[in-house]
Amino acid sequence: MSHAGRRTVHAVAWNYASFALSKGVVLITMAILTRLLPPETFGIVSLATVVISYFSLLQDLGLGSALIQQRSEVQEAANTVYAANLLIGIFFFAVTFAAAPAIAAFFHEPAVTFMLRILALTFVIDPFGSVHIALLQRDLAFRKKLIPDIGRLLVKAAVTIVLAVKGYGAWSLIIGQLSSSVAGVVLARVALRWKLKIRIDKVQLNRLLKFSIPFMGFNLINALVSNIEFVVIGRTLGDAALGIYSITYRIVDMLVMNVWVVLAGAMFPALATIQHQPHLLRRAFLSVTQYVQVFIVPISLGLIITAEPIVKVLLGSQWLDAIPVLRLLPVAFLIFSIGTTAGDVYKAIGRPALLLKMGIVHIAILVPLLLYGVRYHLIGVALSLIATSVLIKTVHLVVVVRVIGVKVSELMRALRPAFVGGTALTVVTTPLIYGIRDEPPAIQLLVAGVTGAATYFGALWLLEKEVVIKGANTILDAVRR
C-alpha cells in the first residue's frame, strides 16, 4: 500500500473511531432524554434548531473546504478563513436575532423567538475553533480531532441530562447545545495549537472564493434539502409530529447516513492529495463505494426489520408512532447512499460546481413530492423521500459515469457483495422477527441482531471472501499504525 493509501486508511480508521464513540454517547443520551421529555418538547426545539442548522451550513461560505483543498500558503489562507468566519458569524447572529419573531410567527410558536436568539450565539462561538478543525482534517490528523469530537458530546450530554432531570424541559436541550459549542472550541484549540491572526489577505481570499462560491451554493441547496421536511412538518403537522420525526430521523442519520458522512470527512482531504491522478481517484471511488455499502446495507435492513423493538427499547412507549417512519426512512437513505462519495471526488478535482447543479436538481424533485406527501402525515413524508432518492440517484449515477469515468459494470461489481449479504440477511431475519414477536423487545432485538449479523457476514465469507479478507487486512493495517 502506498504512503498516501496508508495515511488515508489511518485517517478513516480514526474518523470511524470518533464516529463509533460519539454515536454511542448520542444514543445513550437520546435513550435517557426521550424518557424525560415528551415528543412535543423535541418538536419545539427542532423548530429553532432547524433554522440554526440551515445557517450553520452556510456560515463559512465553504471556506473551510477550500482551506482543506489548498496545498500552499496555508498560514495565510488559515488567517483569512479565521477572520472571514468571525465576520460571517457576527452577521448570522444579527440576522437570526432580528428575524426570530417572524420565524416564530411562521411556525405559530412564540417560544421559538427567545430560543432562536439564544441558540444564535453559536454563530459567534463556533468560528473560534472551526479553522482548527479544518486544519486537523486537512492534515488527516483524525486522532487529534477525536478530542473535540467526543469532548463536546460528553459535555452536551452531561449538561442536557442534568437540566432535564431538574425540570428545565426544552431549555435543557438549548443550553446543552450552547455548552457543546463552547467545549468544542476549547478542545479544538487544545488539540491543535495553531496561532491564527484576524487578518484577511485579499489574494488568498480571492483564491479561496473561486473554490468556495460554487461549494457555498451547494451548501445552500444541501441545507434546504436537509431541513425542508422539518419546516414543512413543523408548519403543517405540529410539534408532536415534528418531535417524532426529528428523533426518528436522528436515529437513521446516526446509523446510516453518518457511515458515508464520516468517511467523507477523511476521504475529501485524502483525495485532494491525488487530485491530478484520475486513475487513482476512480479506483478510490469504487473501493469506497464497495465498503460503504457493505456497512450501510446491514444497518439499513436491520433498522427496517427490527423497527418495532428498536423504538420500544431505545425510546419508550410514548414514541410508538415512530415505528412506521423508522421502517421507511432507511430505505430512502440506503438508496441515496449509493455512490454518494463521488461528491468528494468532484471537490478534490476542483469541480464543486457539479455539486451545485445536482443540488438544484435535487431540490426541484424533492419540493413538489414533499408538499404532496405531507398530506398523508409522516408516512407520506417518508415515502416522498424514497421517491426523491430513486430519481435523484439515477441522475447522480449518470454524472458519475461521465465525470469519473467509472463503467456501470464496475459499479455493479462494487455493489455485489452488499447485495449478496443483504439478501441473505433479509431472507433469514424477516421471518425470525415475526416468529419471536411475543418475546420482550430487548430479546427480539438481541436475537435478530446477532442472527442478522452472523447471516450477513457469513454470506459474505462464503460468497465474497476476497472482499472480507481485504477489508480485514485494511483494518488491521490501520490498527497497527
From TrEMBL:
<feature type="transmembrane region" description="Helical">
    <location>
        <begin position="284"/>
        <end position="305"/>
    </location>
</feature>
<dbReference type="InterPro" id="IPR050833">
    <property type="entry name" value="Poly_Biosynth_Transport"/>
</dbReference>
<feature type="transmembrane region" description="Helical">
    <location>
        <begin position="80"/>
        <end position="108"/>
    </location>
</feature>
<feature type="transmembrane region" description="Helical">
    <location>
        <begin position="146"/>
        <end position="165"/>
    </location>
</feature>
<feature type="transmembrane region" description="Helical">
    <location>
        <begin position="378"/>
        <end position="405"/>
    </location>
</feature>
<feature type="transmembrane region" description="Helical">
    <location>
        <begin position="254"/>
        <end position="272"/>
    </location>
</feature>
<keyword id="KW-0472">Membrane</keyword>
<feature type="transmembrane region" description="Helical">
    <location>
        <begin position="213"/>
        <end position="234"/>
    </location>
</feature>
<comment type="similarity">
    <text>Belongs to the polysaccharide synthase family.</text>
</comment>
<feature type="transmembrane region" description="Helical">
    <location>
        <begin position="114"/>
        <end position="134"/>
    </location>
</feature>
<feature type="transmembrane region" description="Helical">
    <location>
        <begin position="442"/>
        <end position="463"/>
    </location>
</feature>
<feature type="transmembrane region" description="Helical">
    <location>
        <begin position="44"/>
        <end position="68"/>
    </location>
</feature>
<feature type="transmembrane region" description="Helical">
    <location>
        <begin position="12"/>
        <end position="32"/>
    </location>
</feature>
<feature type="transmembrane region" description="Helical">
    <location>
        <begin position="325"/>
        <end position="346"/>
    </location>
</feature>
<keyword id="KW-0812">Transmembrane</keyword>
<keyword id="KW-1133">Transmembrane helix</keyword>
<feature type="transmembrane region" description="Helical">
    <location>
        <begin position="171"/>
        <end position="192"/>
    </location>
</feature>
<feature type="transmembrane region" description="Helical">
    <location>
        <begin position="353"/>
        <end position="372"/>
    </location>
</feature>
<dbReference type="Pfam" id="PF13440">
    <property type="entry name" value="Polysacc_synt_3"/>
</dbReference>
<keyword id="KW-1003">Cell membrane</keyword>
<feature type="transmembrane region" description="Helical">
    <location>
        <begin position="417"/>
        <end position="436"/>
    </location>
</feature>
<protein>
    <submittedName>
        <fullName>O-antigen/teichoic acid export membrane protein</fullName>
    </submittedName>
</protein>
